[in-house]
Structures are given as structure tokens and as C-alpha cells.
Write a structure and sequence with these properties.
Layout (H helix, E strand, L loop, with lengths): L2 E2 L16 H12 L4 E5 L21 H8 L5 E5 L4 H8 L10 E5 L4 E4 L4 E3 L5 H16 L7 E4 L4 E4 L6 H18 L3 E4 L3 E5 L5 H12 L3 E6 L5 H12 L4 E6 L6 H5 L2 E3 L1 H15 L2
Parallel strand pairs: 1-13, 2-3, 2-11, 3-4, 11-12, 12-13
Antiparallel strand pairs: 4-5, 5-6, 7-8, 8-10, 9-10
Helix pairs in contact: 2-9, 6-7
Length: 288
């Protein structure tokens, strides 16, 4: 498991030391050649605190200033999220910010892309199974007797069922996994589990695929990835793959008590979005 950062908010504090040799090599490569480094970050739970209503999620108040200080010093910063790219841009407050010209948002696990330079979103046509599931899901949940407090989030190229507001969120989550997987399969979709949420989305794209393709496109010589949830595990696997190909990488976990799998695999664990912001700020200061 990675070590935790300290509680200090002083950006001149020394960087924490990753707990693994591979993580230390990844950090050393970032510091040695920042202009050839890609930094990838999840949004919810990493840059933005988890809230009961995802529509109310916003980036940590210091996230954009920290990114704006760091982004000009590296090859690129990529926010990789299951949200639509445009929603992540709005909730993150990324548009029109000086210093974020090197930022891209890869939404819907890379199916959509927003570039800060152009300010536009590019995307392929939607999977027809999403529209079919969207139409069927309310009645489907009624028929299987879904837990009270369960609710549906419309995500454009995906549909999510949340259990965080249920009387027993974890029990509701477990009870819905198999029925929703059956529904998704029937329409050519997959189920992506997260922190008290089950997302029905098209197969073939995940954060690992998105990160791998972007790092290779950028010709990066090192990669850092920061995440908090099960959907970030493919991105961790992508960093492992890049490491095996000779590209140093650093795995950072935005720690929480809800998901422990990432902390167990990370080189470095920080204390949620506040810890992520602190790390970004400290990196920016170290690269001055």
C-alpha cells in the first residue's frame, strides 16, 4: 500500500515518497523531464468530492488553480471520467482558464474528448443499446422491486443506477448487480460498478484504453494516474502495461473508506480530493 501525504497545505512541503520502487521511478521521471510527462486524473472522488447528488458535484475549490499551476510545466493533463466530457468541463470549471491550455477531458471513458485549445467536444455516434436501456430501466426497476431511494442518472452515452440514498446502500447495490448485468447484456452493454453506483454503458472503452491511447498519442516518457474508484483499476492496469514497455509510471490513490482496492495497488495514497490538490500544488512548486 502507498503511504499517505501529510496534512500540511504548504505547497513548498517536500513531495511524499512513493512506497514502491516503480512508483519512485515514476516520480523521478516526472521530475526529471516534466515536459514529457502526462498526468491523468479521474474527476469524481479525485478532483471533486463525492456527494449524494452527482449533479451537485464540483471540483475542489483549489483544484483548478493547482492544475493551472502544474499543467504548463508538463506535456499534458488529461481528466478521464465516465461523465460526459461537457459535464465534467462545466462541473470542473476548466473552460477558459489561463494555464489549462494543455488540458484535455476524455469523457465517457474516452468516447468523448474536449480540448481546452479548441473548447469543443468530439464524439462518435451513441450506442443504440443505451437508448433502449434508458427507456426500459424505470419499469424494470419497478418490476424487480428496487430498493426505496434507488435512482437513475442520465449520462448521455450511459445510464447509471445509484444506491447511495437507499436505506441500506450496500445491500441495494449488491441486490441490483445481477439483474442490471442481465439487462445490460440483453442490450449489448456492460455494467461498471462504482461507489454505490452501477453504470450501464457500451463495452470496448474504459479508462485504461483511454489513458493508454492518449499517452501513446502524446509520446509521453512518463505517466502519472490519480483515481479513487473501481472504474480506475483499468487505468492502473494501463500504467502497469506502460511500465512493462519501459515508460515509468506513478499510481496515486485518492483514498476513501468506501473503496480499498486502489489503495492496495497504489504507489502513493493521499487523503481524498484535498490530498490530490495538495499533491498537484506541491508538484507544481517542485517544478519551478
Amino acid at each position: 500500500m502507498g503511504i499517505h501525504t501529510t496534512d500540511s497545505t504548504n505547497p513548498t512541503d517536500p513531495l511524499p515518497t512513493p512506497a514502491t520502487r516503480a512508483g519512485r521511478e515514476g516520480l523521478e521521471a516526472l521530475l526529471a523531464r516534466p515536459g514529457a510527462a502526462v498526468i491523468g486524473l479521474d474527476f469524481d472522488g479525485t478532483l471533486a468530492p463525492i456527494v449524494a447528488d452527482p449533479e451537485q458535484a464540483r471540483a475542489h475549490p483549489e483544484a483548478v488553480p493547482a492544475l493551472a499551476a502544474l499543467a504548463p510545466k508538463v506535456a499534458s493533463v488529461a481528466v478521464i471520467t465516465g461523465r460526459p466530457a461537457g459535464v465534467a468541463v462545466r462541473h470542473g470549471g476548466f473552460a477558459g482558464v489561463s494555464g489549462l491550455e494543455h488540458l484535455v477531458v476524455l469523457g465517457h471513458y474516452g468516447a468523448e474528448r474536449w480540448d481546452a485549445v479548441s473548447g469543443t467536444v468530439s464524439a462518435p455516434p451513441s450506442h443504440p443499446g443505451v437508448a433502449a436501456v434508458r427507456a426500459e430501466l424505470p419499469g424494470f426497476l419497478d418490476r424487480i422491486g428496487a430498493w426505496r431511494g434507488t435512482w437513475i442518472e442520465e449520462k448521455g452515452r450511459a445510464v447509471a443506477v445509484h444506491t447511495r440514498r437507499a436505506e441500506d446502500p450496500q445491500a441495494a447495490f449488491e441486490a441490483l448487480r445481477a439483474p442490471l448485468a442481465e439487462l445490460a447484456t440483453r442490450h449489448g452493454l456492460i455494467v461498471e460498478p462504482g461507489r454505490m453506483v452501477l453504470e450501464l454503458r457500451p463495452p470496448g472503452m474504459d479508462k485504461g484504453v483511454a489513458l493508454l491511447e492518449y499517452v501513446r498519442e502524446a509520446g509521453a516518457e512518463s505517466v502519472t494516474y490519480v483515481g479513487d474508484d473501481l472504474g480506475d483499476l483499468p487505468a492502473y492496469a494501463a500504467v502497469d502495461k506502460l511500465r512493462s514497455d519501459g515508460v515509468p509510471g506513478l499510481l496515486v490513490c485518492s483514498g476513501s473508506s468506501e473503496v480499498t482496492e486502489l489503495a492496495e495497488r497504489a504507489d502513493l495514497v493521499v487523503d481524498g480530493p484535498e490530498g490530490v490538490v495538495r499533491l498537484l500544488r506541491t508538484l507544481a512548486a517542485q517544478l519551478d
